[in-house]
């Protein structure tokens, strides 16, 4: 079975590194790097020359290294500050004897590492006929060190730029490839840290806000929770956004999913105020149901590719846990519209499931909340959850209509053939979970596909 990280030689020479948006085409000088057949680490065993777009660095030209140094310092500072805030929150709630809040805040520190372990171990077992116990143990230890690896990844990017900060020149193709590899490794770890810690934080913050509306909470404290929720939401969007979106599709995607996330978070927080810890069970049931659905879709892609494939129960179970970690739990607020997950109106089915759940959550809160009479802020919360869901669903539908048909296949082509920079972690997750294949028309008529022309069947 082909490993999800395997590289292979191109059938045709890629002519444009990116499509659909802000990462403009860069003419790559083949005479400079065409003979370079050595790529870094696991990214290049095929001997294919690496093509990496400088992206935003091209705007800074000779000052690319100072910009990269500054952005690396900012990213590292933000991450260290988040670790400090999470740790401080645990200490504060523990000293205040708010044990439940303390436990929830502690999950912000430990849950990302646990899910990362599930993902890397499941991905390994899925691709092995006989998994070695020592390899599984190694991956568990690696996952437990998620926080040090995350810091190490950001420090490596910082070191890369600091060593060249006084050089006034653009990055060479080899340096772009090295930077891309370092950042891609950091982004894989970032997803688990940003999304899962962020999801728990925003639910806790909204829960505190909602339960404080009926009390005499200080305005300053309430404002702080609202600001913290907004910053957490932005970090979650950074973790899941696609990097191949253009100005229009990027605006539609960010606006749509931010609206959906706020609506879902408010609905879940409202229901949590009446059923308390039972909401954890409800969320897990939702994640398990979605994971079973996606696992069925994923297994079918393997049999469609090779009907005689031997896909044991152990490998199916490993695939389920992979999907649970990167698709099931995130489906509480997000659905990646790509590859198999955008076919057969599956995004519409997902939005319908969220709508039904939101109605049930808000109805449950309305029936069992302590004060039977609706206060002014209660109406605001209901209209906020309902209105933002409608707005988010409309933007997502517009996004689906505006996104070019062959975008996913071309991005997948670039990932496999020219080792392009990361387009967003969900492309890698789809490559691990599903049996994705490169379409022949993408290979033979790539330029026409990039120009959004229709390919004859």
From TrEMBL:
Organism encoding this protein: Argiope bruennichi
Residue stretches spanning the membrane: 101-125, 246-263, 275-296, 317-337, 349-368, 380-400
Compartments where found: Cell membrane; Membrane
UniProt cross-references to InterPro entries, sorted A to Z: XK-rel (IPR018629), XK-related_scramblase (IPR050895)
Region of interest (Disordered), residue spans: 25-51
Membrane topology (UniProt): Multi-pass membrane protein
GO CC terms, sorted: plasma membrane
Record field: compositional bias (Low complexity): 33-48
Chief subcellular location: membrane
UniProt family annotation: Belongs to the XK family.
Protein name (Swiss-Prot/TrEMBL): XK-related protein
């Amino acid at each position: 079975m082909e490993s999800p990280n395997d590289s292979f030689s191109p059938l045709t020479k890629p002519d444009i590194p990116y499509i659909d948006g802000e990462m403009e085409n860069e003419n790559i000088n083949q005479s400079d790097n065409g003979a370079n057949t050595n790529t870094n680490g696991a990214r290049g065993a095929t001997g294919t020359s690496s093509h990496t777009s400088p992206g935003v660095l091209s705007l800074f030209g000779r000052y690319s290294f100072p910009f990269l140094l500054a952005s690396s310092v900012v990213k590292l500072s933000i991450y260290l500050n988040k670790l400090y805030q999470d740790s401080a929150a645990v200490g504060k709630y523990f000293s205040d004897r708010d044990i439940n809040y303390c436990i929830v805040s502690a999950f912000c520190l430990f849950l990302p590492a646990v899910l990362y372990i599930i993902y890397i171990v499941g991905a390994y077992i899925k691709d092995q006929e006989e998994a070695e116990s020592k390899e599984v143990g190694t991956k568990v230890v690696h996952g437990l060190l998620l926080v040090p690896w995350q810091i190490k990844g950001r420090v490596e990017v910082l070191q890369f730029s600091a060593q060249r900060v006084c050089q006034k020149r653009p990055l060479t193709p080899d340096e772009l490839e090295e930077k891309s590899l370092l950042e891609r490794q950091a982004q894989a770890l970032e997803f688990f840290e940003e999304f899962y810690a962020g999801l728990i934080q925003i639910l806790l913050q909204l829960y505190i806000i909602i339960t404080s509306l009926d009390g005499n909470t200080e305005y300053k404290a309430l404002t702080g929770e609202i600001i913290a929720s907004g910053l957490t939401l932005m970090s979650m969007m950074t973790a899941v956004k696609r990097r191949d979106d253009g100005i229009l599709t990027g605006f539609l995607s960010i606006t749509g999913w931010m609206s959906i996330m706020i609506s879902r978070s408010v609905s879940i927080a409202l229901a949590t105020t009446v059923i308390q810890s039972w909401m954890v069970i409800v969320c897990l049931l939702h994640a398990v149901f979605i994971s079973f659905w996606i696992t069925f879709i994923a297994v079918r892609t393997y049999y469609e590719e090779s009907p005689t494939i031997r896909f044991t129960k152990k490998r199916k179970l490993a695939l389920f846990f992979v999907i649970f970690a990167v698709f099931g739990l995130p489906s509480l607020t997000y659905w990646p519209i790509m590859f198999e997950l955008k076919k057969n109106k599956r995004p519409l089915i997902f939005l319908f499931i969220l709508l039904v759940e939101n109605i049930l959550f808000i109805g449950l809160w309305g029936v069992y909340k302590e004060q039977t009479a609706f206060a002014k802020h209660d109406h605001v919360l209901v209209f906020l959850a309902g209105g933002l869901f409608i707005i988010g669903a409309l933007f997502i539908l517009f996004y689906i209509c505006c996104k070019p048909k062959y975008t996913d296949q071309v991005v997948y082509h670039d990932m496999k053939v020219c080792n392009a920079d990361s387009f967003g972690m969900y492309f890698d997750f789809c490559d691990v979970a599903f049996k994705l294949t490169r379409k022949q028309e993408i290979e033979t008529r790539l330029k026409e596909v990039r120009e959004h022309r229709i390919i004859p069947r």
